[in-house]
Amino acid sequence: MKTSLLAGLLAAAASLVAAAPMPMPTPPGIPAASTAKTQLAALTVKAYVDDGNYDRDLFPTWNTISGTCNTRETVLKRDGTNVVVNSACASTSGSWFSPYDGATWTAASDVDIDHMVPLKNAWVSGANAWTTSKRQSFANDLSGPQLWAVTDNVNQAKGDKSPDAWKPPLSSFYCTYARSWVQVKSTWALTVTSAEKTALTSMLNTC
Predict the structure, then answer these.
(1) Beta 69-70 vs 64-66: how paired, if at all?
(2) Which pLDDT score, from 0 to 100, does residue 26 have?
C-alpha cells in the first residue's frame, strides 16, 4: 500500500514537472511598476518627426563580448535553457522561451534578438544627435532590458513600432514590456510621443 502510494506521488510530481512552463527570460534592470511610472512621468513628450536619415548601419551590431561570442550569442546563452555552443560560440542546441508570444523554440535560427526600443524609434527619439559610438553602445546594451530573445516573426511584426502601434501577443506580458521600454527610454534620455505615453500608461496599469 505504501509502495503504491509513493509511486502515485512520484508520478504526480513528475507530471507537475513536465507541465511546468519554462522560466521567463529576465534581462537585468527591469524596474518595479511604481518606478517605471515615475520614470515615464519624467520623460520628455515630443512629436514623432522622421528626418529621413535613419540607417540601420548607424547602430553597429553585434559587438564581440567575450572570446568568440558576440552580443547576439551572449543573449541566446543568457535567455536560453541548456544552451550548448560550439567553438565559434554558435548555439548548437538548447531551448528558448519567447515571452512576447509564449512560444518555445529549440533552434537558434528561429530566434531573433529584439531591441526593446527599436533602433529607428531611438533615432527619432533623440539618437540622431548621438555619436556612432553611443549608438553602438545602445544597440548592444546588455546592462538593461534592451535585448530580448524572441520568436523571429514576432520581432519582424513589431518592426520599429512603439507600444501605441504594436504590443506583444501575450497581454500577460504587457506589464513587463512597458516597464522595460520605459527603463530603456529613461536610461538613454529618449523622448516619447503623446500616444506612446498613453499606451505605456495603460500597459503599466495592468501590473
Answers:
(1) antiparallel
(2) 76
